[in-house]
Write a structure and sequence with these properties.
The structure holds 2 protein chains of 2 kinds. By secondary structure, chain A is mostly helical. Chain A is built from 15 helices and 2 strands. Chain B has one domain: ABC transporter involved in vitamin B12 uptake, BtuC. Helix content of chain B is 72%, strand content 1%. By secondary structure, chain B is mainly α. The chains are: A mainly alpha, B mainly alpha.
């Protein structure tokens, strides 16, 4: 009896500490990632002593599109899918935004951005609807749709062109009052918080986790699997549109050729502790994952090493971290 | 990705859908013929033996890359590193041509490819990393190293070896492409390997039910490592043929083929969840994609429309296929 009673008494004595330990254990992966990020930042400071506020500014701006793409990927991976058309959707939304905003008034720009966000929701929902209706595997459908959206982007603009409203550029470029806090970071956190947190707390959010974790069980518990999947993909489309807009905002133009965002977003999502099997993880981890991937690239530049070695080390870190993760999982399951 | 709510086994399909399920090559070949007929109708007089030779020549590298996807998809995996490996191999041989020579170049390229495959295989087989993410990581590593190698060797001229140009792009009697000399034995090897060898059966077994395969004594990690090494070697071969076909050696040569290679395997009737499919259908799938893309070009569509139609056609074919073959 005493063995059973012991811990209970302890828990009553230190509820806060225990809750904290439980929280840390639940978020162990994210916390380790933050630690890895901190080590990388310290390393950056060591190899480049002048790294400071401007460096953080640059980092935030270069991270913004990829971070939003990673959040987009995270949503549909949590829902048990995968979206290989994110890069193409970003290209499409970016060129639509850039081509419509060019030489237009600032107010018109607001309307364009709203329209592009709706466009993102629609193309994401199309992806989801095609998957649900045809029952073709997600990976195949989104792969094929990546051609469709990239082609559509080429229809809008043949070459990089267009423009961006000034307010949109001002929104992401520069510091937010204080040198150490870049506007891009604030925008990222606000956007993700405003869209993701309410969604996650809602029934729909729970349903997305449910269909990702066990589709059959979700179906039997009364979750509308099809519509939930469409909503998950529409959310992915919305975040991809945000990522596309952020590309236009930070570069001032729209480029119809998809960047390397699709595969990088998959890498960041997995690095961020989201299981490709679905139903597990969040959007915060992937954002840290993106920071790590981009910071490696920057460090290589500071070390004046061949930038291609950055790609190598990104790949190695991805492999290493994921192997480490599955090793932990394996040991846990043997216990 | 998702485990679909299937009612597999609830009802034994009869007639057509059974034929489609068990012999996907038949309906897929019919589709190929339909597309070729459409081609002949919209571009009268173009479709002849010479045209067929050109299409065949273009389809061979894609078919080999799609073969990598087929083999890995049979085990429920996927290999996204094939294109990085293929480009790397083509570039490696070209860059070593003027120093060490052609044979050494081939040996180095194949060794590098095998090492990349070994890395993927160890990750997938021993550490049980998801094949998608493992091969993606390896493709970053390979592409980065190939790029670094490119910068190191930028002074030495890089030309595609004449032997590869002949095999990749020339045709016997202006008709049969020489690449068939490589492709036909490879195809025979894969087809026989899948049907008649224990290794081939093990691929199906692991994809169909990994637990059952393990309980019946299959050492899946050995099978998976061998599989991914094999896949990388095939990818390297495809890369060599492709560099010969295009007369280009670049580290991003095969990048645009990664998506079509998956699509060709899927259209050819290989299930992305594993356990079902074969190389025969994949070859036809690669031919279909090549003909469609030639057709769209021949019709004079701009690049943008071509891409949209290409993607839509893949979805429609895959959807029709899924609809016909699903049991429920």
């Amino acid at each position: 009896m005493s063995a059973v009673a012991g811990p209970i008494v302890d828990t009553r004595g230190r509820p806060v500490v225990d809750a904290l330990v439980a929280w840390a254990r639940r978020n162990g992966w994210t916390l380790s990632l933050i630690a890895l990020l901190a080590v990388l930042l310290a390393f950056t400071k060591v190899i480049n002593p002048s790294y400071g506020a401007p460096g953080i500014q640059g980092l935030a701006i270069s991270v913004l599109p990829l971070a939003l793409a990673a959040v987009a990927q995270a949503v549909c991976v949590i829902g048990g899918g995968i979206d290989l058309s994110i890069g193409s959707m970003m290209a499409l939304t970016s060129v639509v935004a850039a081509s419509q905003m060019k030489d237009q008034s600032e107010e018109f720009g607001v309307a364009v951005i709203l329209a592009v966000l709706i466009l993102g929701l629609i193309i994401g929902a199309v992806n989801g609807a095609v998957i649900v209706i045809t029952r073709v595997p997600d990976i195949v459908v989104t792969l094929a749709m990546s051609f469709v959206w990239a082609g559509a982007a080429l229809l809008v603009l043949k070459t990089p062109a267009g423009g961006s409203a000034q307010w949109l550029k001002d929104l992401v470029l520069g510091p937010a009052g204080f040198d150490w806090i870049p506007k891009a970071a604030v925008v990222l956190i606000v956007v993700v918080a405003v869209i993701w947190i309410p969604l996650r707390r809602s029934t729909v959010g729970l349903s997305i986790y449910a269909i990702g974790s066990d589709r059959l069980a979700a179906f039997r518990s009364g979750v509308a699997v099809g519509p939930t999947k469409v909503i998950a993909y529409a959310t992915t489309g919305l975040f991809a549109a945000l990522a596309g807009i952020s590309l236009t905002a930070s570069t001032g133009i729209g480029n119809p050729v998809p960047g390397p965002y699709t595969l990088m977003s998959v890498a960041a999502v997995v690095l961020g502790g989201v299981s490709l099997a679905g139903g597990r993880g969040g959007v915060f981890g992937p954002m840290i994952g993106v920071l790590i991937l981009v910071l490696i690239q920057n460090d290589m530049a500071f070390l004046s090493l061949d930038p291609n070695l950055a790609l190598v080390s990104q790949g190695l870190i991805l492999i290493g971290v994921v192997m480490f993760g599955s090793l932990i999982q394996w040991r846990r399951s043997r216990r | 990705m998702t485990s679909s709510i299937s009612t597999r086994g609830a009802r034994i399909p009869g007639g057509w859908s059974r034929l489609l399920r068990e012999q996907p090559v038949v309906p897929i070949s019919a589709l190929l013929i339909v597309i070729v007929v459409i081609y002949a109708l919209v571009r009268p007089g173009v479709v002849n033996a010479d045209w067929a030779g050109v299409i065949l020549r273009a389809a061979v590298p894609l078919a080999i890359l799609a073969g990598c996807q087929t083999l890995t998809m049979l085990t429920g995996g996927i290999d996204l590193s094939v294109c990085a490996v293929a480009s790397m191999a083509g570039f490696m041989v070209a860059s070593l041509l003027h120093g060490p020579g052609f044979e050494i170049g081939i040996a180095v390229a194949l060794t590098a490819a095998a090492l990349a495959g070994l890395l993927t295989g160890i990750g997938v087989g021993i550490f049980r990393v998801h094949p998608l993410i493992m091969s993606l990581g390896v493709s970053f590593v390979v592409l980065g190293l190939a790029n670094a190698w490119q910068i190191l060797t930028v002074q030495s001229s890089t030309g595609v070896p004449p032997v590869l140009r002949t095999i990749g792009s020339e045709r016997l009697g202006e008709l049969l492409p020489y690449s068939l000399v490589v492709f036909i034995p490879l195809t025979a090897l894969i087809l026989i390997g899948l049907r008649r060898t224990g290794f081939g059966r093990m691929l199906f077994a692991i994809g169909d039910n990994p637990t059952a395969a393990r309980l019946s004594g299959a050492r899946s990690w050995q099978v998976l490592i061998t599989l991914y090494v094999l896949s990388a070697l095939m990818a390297a071969l495809a890369g060599l043929l492709l560099s010969g076909l295009t007369n280009v050696a670049s580290v991003t040569l095969a990048d645009s083929l990664v998506l079509p290679s998956v699509a060709a395997a899927v259209i050819g009737g290989t299930s992305i969840f594993g356990g079902r499919g074969g190389f025969g259908g994949t070859i036809v799938g690669a031919l279909i994609l090549t003909v469609i893309s030639a057709l769209l070009t021949a019709l004079g569509f701009p690049e943008a429309v071509r891409q949209i139609l290409f993607g839509s056609i893949i979805v429609v074919v895959a959807a029709a296929y899924t609809r016909v073959t699903s049991v429920s």
